[in-house]
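ok posting inputs for the adenosine-5'-diphosphate job
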Amino acid sequence: MLSEFDLIAEYFNRPRPVRATLGIGDDCALLTPGAGMQTAISSDMLVEGRHFFAGADPRRLGHKSLAVNLSDLAAMGARPVGFTLALALPSAERAWLAEFSAGLFALADAHGCELIGGDTTKGPLNICITIFGELAPGEALRRDAAQPGDDIWISGTLGDARLALAACLREPGAGEELARGEDFAAAAARLHAPTPRVALGRLLAERRIAHAAIDISDGLVGDIGHILKLSRVGATLDVDALPAGPVLSRYAQEWRRAYTAAGGDDYELCFTAPATQREAVLAAGVQSGTAVTRVGRIEAEPGLRLVDAQGAPLALALQGFDHFGSA
Ligand code: ADP
Ligand code: MG
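and the output
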């Protein structure tokens, strides 16, 4: 039987921290911030049955648990430094732990982000990561910083994750169609193993290209609403300009519109930047290997206006995801 301490030693404690002054093993970890730097901190919890299906692939779960946290650092423009892992497990299964930690550390190592501590307890499967990043004062891409006249940009593509979820839930329409088709695995990879846009976020912040940013976890229309509210501005969004994922691109317009505008689980960045920065945004996209698409404009008039390719108003029955909403 694996004890709590064996479990930590075997699967989570790795030799000698590089970024942390003191890593796993004491009452606290110690981080020494770079001179004059600010610390960006964020937590995200993944609960079985709420954020992932029971029996989910543990390697992908390890990846996704950290990916959603890295995505928050990306949306702030911060450089990843370290993270803590609070884990509730129904039982200590070696095969599960080996796969989970492999998925977690593969992504952590790719971003130079170190596991510096955590907590382990028995209980319903629940994974909570708190992540720490670093940036210089004034660099942060805050939600309250959008300005009228800014362009609105989206990284990567949207909607494939929502399409995969629709297939998992056998939702009528596109979901049922995907469940029967050959593209399910490609769309499901977007749902279960999102790519956090850390390099792009960092360039947008470091070069002072973008004003505001948010990562899209609950659907673009809902998430951009947070920027509009905190920045006290409005926006017009060209729904037909939204970059649909490669799988969703092959589906009918009604699904493309619905799932790009209000999908969820995309973990792409939505950011605003002055029109004078268009070349700089495109260069940051090329340098970070991330597609960037201009999809609208910030305006002084409050409210979000959705339009089609011709600029005609679109009335879509869309809602972002709200864990405590009525949906
Ligand atoms: P405490 O009793 O003070 O909470 P623990 O005995 O729970 O400490 O943890 C011992 C050490 O192992 C601490 O440094 C803690 O940060 C680390 N730790 C516990 N669980 C995890 C985990 N899941 N991942 C990484 N480190 C962990
Ligand atoms: Mg403890």
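notes: Residues 119 surround magnesium ion (ligand 2) (CB under 6 Å). DSSP finds ten helices and ten strands in the chain.
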